[in-house]
Design brief:
- By secondary structure, the chain is α+β, with helices and mostly antiparallel strands.
- It has one domain: Lipoprotein localisation LolA/LolB/LppX (outer membrane lipoprotein receptor (LolB), chain A).
- The chain is built from seven helices and 19 strands.
- A hairpin with a 4-residue loop joins β17 and β18.
- α1 runs parallel beside α4.
- The longest helix has 17 residues.
- The chain is globular.
- The N terminus is likely disordered.
Length: 451
């Protein structure tokens, strides 16, 4: 049975649709928790006829969100792979593979993909379901500008996408807890497997997807999150801070240099400028798989299709693993990676001719049940394949949210790769924290750093 508030949201969305949304009211009416064609997030509820993609059966929601920091239990630890994709048999599975995975399989004879039974059990808080239904009838991109999201509150803005920018916004604005501290470990891995670890502590307050005080995106200055990262190792860059306020239409950013002991505006924090401390291996718009403004690309929605994708990545996030076990030469230890077949929304982004970006084209793959980008193909301006991004999707049952841990950027030209969002030797995400907005004031950040 639908809750009264959920039913009211559905009715409101349908009523608003003709005037405010690109999506027909009959499409919005297909959204629901049960008994409808689409899930509340717009995924096709039914599985595929061949059984490769199962029906959506979300795990039973907890009566409350369990915020205590804890390691994720491997719900499917006893399962065995259905099959393994290798360079020798990849043609058999070509329709299910991203170009990036084809490149990895064809270039490295040690690369393989263990494909396990698929589980569509991702669940989200009821408030997110209800807000998403309401957004479907009113959220829009003002003037068609992909960076100008308007009239969206709390939930995913576009459960029924009609343009390539819609999945991007869904990914960026998904529920991830109200406040969180994440212990992010990163490494640039050389061809021989050697690496040096960089340790970062990230503090985030989500203003938009916040259950206690839901936010709204309705104007250029509306903020959807505050972000502060502190580098703690290695010693040569320890103490560096990055502060960002993510607005609807733009980003405000500051960098703190411990040598200078002052904080300064950082307009370069964006696009294909290298993230501090990554030696150019990660651009700012590759953080969290995709990030920043969309205005240097055109965005085309290609549709959705079943694909092999990293999913239910409990094994590779075990606290019993050390980074030396995960990070191998040329690629991670693929015996630790779990792949499943899921329906993915496919978006193609092409660099506009009037503005420059390192990548000429991106192809992005979003999981239909979580709106999370798990794979990206990146091409250079010679139309050569350049970098493959792979995010291992992990759904946190106790918080009813999903993220990619770890995230990998494979440079197919230099044969090195960058690993980020690794937590194995550190602490699990802490959702118990509560940050005041003033915690992210640039002057206060600088004063705390100078103590």
């Amino acid at each position: 049975m639908l809750s009264r508030s959920f039913a009211a949201a559905l009715a409101l969305a349908a009523a608003c649709a003709p005037a405010l949304a690109e999506v027909p009211a009959e499409e919005i009416a297909k959204l629901g928790i049960e008994g409808t064609e689409y899930t509340p997030l717009g995924a096709i509820r039914a599985g595929t006829e061949d059984g490769q993609v199962p029906e959506w059966t979300p795990y039973t929601p907890h009566s409350r969100l369990i915020k205590d920091p804890r390691w994720i239990e491997d719900r499917y630890a006893n399962e065995k792979p259905l099959f393994t994709v290798t360079g020798e048999n990849m043609d058999q599975y070509a329709d299910l593979l991203s170009e990036g995975h084809k490149q990895m399989l064809s270039r490295y004879d040690t690369y393989k993909m263990h494909v396990y039974p698929s589980h569509r059990d991702a669940a989200w808080p009821d408030e997110i379901y209800e807000a998403t239904i309401a957004n479907a009838g009113k959220a829009h991109l003002e003037g068609g500008d992909p960076d100008k999201l308007r009239s969206a509150t709390l939930g995913f803005p576009f459960p029924v996408p009609t343009t390539g920018a819609h999945p991007w916004w869904n990914h960026r604005l998904k529920w991830r807890g109200n406040d969180v501290v994440r212990y992010n470990n990163q490494a640039i891995v050389q061809d021989n497997g050697s690496f040096q670890l960089t340790k970062i502590v990230e503090e985030v307050k989500f203003k938009y997807a916040n259950l206690e005080k839901p936010g709204t995106m309705n104007g250029p200055d509306d903020i959807f999150l505050w972000y502060l990262s502190t580098t703690t190792a290695p010693p040569r860059i320890a103490g560096q801070l990055l502060l960002a306020w993510e607005h609807a239409d733009y980003r405000s950013a500051w960098l703190y240099n411990p040598g200078l002991r002052r904080i300064r505006r950082a307009p370069s924090v964006g696009y294909d400028n290298p993230y501090e401390g990554t030696d150019g291996q990660q651009f700012y718009d590759q953080v969290d798989m995709i990030n920043g403004k969309l205005d240097r690309f055109t965005w085309k929605l290609l549709g959705r299709k079943p694909m092999i994708t990293p999913y239910n990545a409990m094994k590779i996030n075990s606290n019993e693993l050390e980074y030396e076990q995960i990070l191998q030469g040329r690629h991670i230890d693929q015996d630790l990676a779990r792949y499943e077949i899921h329906r993915m929304w496919v978006v193609e982004a092409n660099n506009r001719p009037d503005v420059r970006h390192t990548f000429k084209k991106k192809v992005i793959y979003f999981d239909e049940d979580t709106w999370t980008a798990t794979m990206l193909d990146n091409y250079d301006h010679r139309d050569q394949y350049y970098k493959f991004q792979e995010g291992h999707l992990l759904c946190v049952e106790t918080m009813r949210t999903c993220s990619t841990l770890p995230e990998l950027i494979y440079d197919l030209q230099s044969r090195t790769y960058f690993a980020t969002a690794m937590i194995n030797e550190d602490k699990p995400n802490d959702f118990t924290v509560e940050f005041d907005e003033k915690h992210f004031d640039p002057n206060k950040v600088a004063r705390r750093a100078n103590r």
